[in-house]
Design a protein that fits this description.
This protein has 689 residues and is an alpha/beta fold. Helix content is 39%, strand content 10%. A hairpin with a 6-residue loop joins strand 1 and strand 2. Helix 12 runs parallel beside helix 13. Belongs to the class I-like SAM-binding methyltransferase superfamily. RsmB/NOP family. One of its GO terms (molecular function) is methyltransferase activity.
Length: 689
């Protein structure tokens, strides 16, 4: 026991029982001196660990600083042991939170840290089994504080197929990381053989085939997903940015399916969003358009909410956004609104540092109509005078993120917590946690819908679970309407979000009341719903037409518009008669009028037979003359604004993007014009006598 105590620095219980060839002079990760440490161990700055400044990491591989911080992220998120060959030490896993990586200023280095930690979480079972099967760990090993750094380094070796890592010039060296790296490299042959045995055991053609099916599908979609970037229209128009990209060597293609290297296209639903190929990420991030704030990289699933809010706003309306997160969704909404007449109140500011970062980003983009609020949204009074002009609320809650296909990019661009790496590395989500999230979402919507002047609430999530989406909006709408008197205010009802979807996309939607996108290689999964306090007589096409009139959709050529409108209007107008037909109708009308009028007095049959008798007045037919006023054509939303959606009218006169609802179909039916005999019967005082 004395020898063991001397070998493990006086600590026997809980220490790793590693292979005999492991050096005894290892420096433990927790023995590195610290200069500052925040409460809870969230933010850590270590003496001796270099701080990577902006644009400092441009290498292709990982270095010791990446290993160090990736091991911290992995250690705080890794679940219980993934292999039965390891003993369990619960004390090493409880009470840890992912670090904030404030010491890493470079975005690419931060992306490498999260990528490596996420890979280690996905392959945790395989990596731990390799460590035991190769003999690096003994079969009764208890993972200690060094287990995380060992797994992370082994994961990077697996990614580069056990090739020797190439060091960059002036690369920082951390002594304890160097010792573990050298020792693992000495076991390369045995570790590689263990990997081969695992692949043979599970008949896996590649390492990726060892992952669970859902995790593997999510990873495949994430690697193929294109890059979305919205244009900051406060600084440049979409046309100017497209022209500048063309001058820089990019080529505009007609659709997302035609994307390639140095090419882009305009998104079909969001006209200010440009789509680039995934292989152009580094080039695009280094471009002056992105660094200057003309283009902002953000996934399309986060852009649908701001465009739906824009369609619901009128001049002078204010907006509340919950939660702001990284602030890019709030900034996108601000660029779509009037900077002088619309104020956006953004909730979800964590602290002063977060507030300063949000305001700095807003200033960089030229935004000055956003107010970031640190108050708890649930503590805000509905009668607060600050929100008297708020008409629309955008709710983007902290959901399960089950529709996210690339969690690393989501953390970097949306400011999400790194805990989603651990959740998305598993095949299933914890049902208890999902119930807690659903309860929070419902309370959030209830509080937002109680503001007296709010006319619409837009609910946008990155979840694919029905419990978080359809069930939440349906139950909350029923709850609010049951507690609110309809005689005072119009009840809330679900209306379709205003987005120009193609017929193929509409067919994929489970309902016409909301939009739900499954994760794919083109975009992440998301859910979008609008609860509006509209008049029940307003159809879905009316709501969409109102948004189309505000310029949400692009206009087609004017000639096609005029032709379509005139053709639809002529169809509803009374047909003109020819000169001959008009002459005959006038003659018949005069004779019919003479017969109806008749003599003023007439004798009864008896009197006429005898030649005398009382004079009897025949009953006069009170016929109401038809109005000479021209009938106006039926002005439905589908007819008025069809030119916003399509260049040619469809067979059922329904524009693309308008959901086929019963109300819209009834409103589109042309009214029958009653002919003259019918008018006489209608206006006769006693038509059945």
């Amino acid at each position: 026991m004395a020898l063991l105590s001397q070998h493990y620095g006086g600590r026997v219980p809980g220490m790793i029982k590693a292979h005999s060839s492991v050096p005894s002079t290892r420096r433990k990760a927790d023995s590195i001196p610290t200069s500052t440490m925040s409460a809870g161990g969230c933010e850590v700055t270590l003496d001796g660990i270099p701080i990577l400044p902006e644009n400092s990491d441009r290498g292709q591989g990982c270095n010791h600083v990446i290993y160090h911080y990736a091991s911290q992220v992995f250690g705080s998120l890794r679940p219980a042991k993934k292999t039965d060959k390891l003993l369990l030490d619960v004390d090493l896993r409880s009470g840890k939170e992912p670090p904030k990586l404030t010491a890493i200023k470079d975005e690419r280095a931060k992306r490498k840290v999260y990528d490596l930690a996420f890979d280690a979480l996905k392959y945790q079972a395989l990596l731990e089994d390799m460590l035991v099967d190769s003999g690096y760990y003994s079969y009764d090993t208890v993972p200690d504080e060094n287990h995380s750094i060992i797994v992370v380094i082994l994961c990077d070796m697996l990614n580069r197929h056990f090739a020797k890592r190439l060091r960059e010039p002036n690369e920082p060296v951390i002594p304890y990381v160097q010792e573990f790296e050298d020792d693992l490299f000495a076991h390369t042959t045995k570790l590689n053989a263990s990997l081969a045995r695992n692949r043979i055991k599970f008949q896996a053609r590649s390492v990726e085939c060892l992952l669970p099916e859902k995790v593997r599908q999510r990873e495949e979609c994430g690697t193929k997903m294109p890059i979305y970037a919205w244009v900051n229209q406060l600084q440049n128009s979409v046309e100017d940015v497209i022209e500048q990209l063309t001058q820089d060597g990019y080529k505009k293609v007609p659709s997302i399916n035609s994307l390639g290297e140095y090419s882009f296209t305009v998104d079909s639903q969001c006209p200010n969003v440009l789509v680039f190929d995934a292989q152009n990420r580094n080039t695009l991030e280094d471009s002056y358009l992105v660094r200057g704030g003309n283009l902002v990289i953000q996934d399309k699933s986060c852009c649908l909410g701001p465009h739906s809010v824009k369609a619901l706003l009128n001049e002078g309306d204010d907006v509340i956004h919950i939660y702001t997160g990284s602030g890019w969704t709030t900034a996108h909404l601000a660029t779509l609104t009037n900077q002088e007449h619309c104020t956006i109140y953004a909730f979800g500011v964590k602290n002063e540092e977060h507030s300063e970062q949000l305001m700095a980003n807003a200033k960089k983009l030229g935004i000055h109509n956003v107010k970031f609020i640190q108050d708890n949204f649930f503590e805000v009074q509905h009668i607060d005078n600050r929100f008297k002009n708020v008409k629309v609320v955008l709710v983007t809650p902290h959901d399960s993120r089950s529709g996210v296909t690339n969690p690393v990019e989501y953390i970097i661009h949306e400011g999400a917590d790194a805990s989603i790496l651990g959740e998305l590395s598993q095949e299933q989500i914890d049902s208890d946690k999902l119930d807690v999230l659903v309860s929070k979402h419902m309370e959030l919507l209830k509080h937002a819908m109680k503001f007296p002047h709010v006319q619409a609430v837009v609910y946008a999530t990155n979840s694919i679970f029905r419990e978080e989406n359809e069930n939440v909006v349906t139950k909350v709408t029923e709850y609010i309407n049951a507690r609110t008197s309809t005689s005072i205010r119009n009840p809330f009802r679900l209306i379709p979000p205003v987005l120009p979807l193609t017929p193929a996309e509409l067919e994929k939607q489970p309902s016409s009341k909301f939009i739900k996108m499954e994760p794919s290689s083109s975009m992440g999964g998301c859910f979008l719903s609008v609860m509006s306090r509209e008049d029940e007589s307003m159809s879905a096409s009316d709501v969409i037409a109102r948004a189309a009139a505000k310029g949400l959709c692009s206009l087609p050529p004017a000639k096609a518009t005029a032709t379509t409108t005139s053709a639809q209007g002529d169809e509803l107008k009374p047909k003109k008669k020819s000169s001959k037909t008009s002459q005959k109708s006038l003659t018949k009308s005069a004779s019919a009028k003479k017969e109806r009028k008749g003599p003023k007095t007439s004798k009864s049959p008896t009197a006429d037979h005898h030649g005398h008798g009382p004079t009897v007045r025949s009953p006069t037919l009170l016929v109401k003359k038809p109005s000479s006023k021209r009938l106006r054509p039926i002005r439905t939303a589908s007819l008025m604004f069809a030119h916003h959606f399509t260049n040619s009218s469809t067979s059922d006169r329904q524009p693309y993007g308008v959901p086929m609802t019963k109300a819209s179909l009834v409103r589109m039916q042309p009214k029958a014009e009653p002919v003259r005999p019918h008018q006489e019967a209608i206006h006769h005082p006693k038509p059945f006598l």
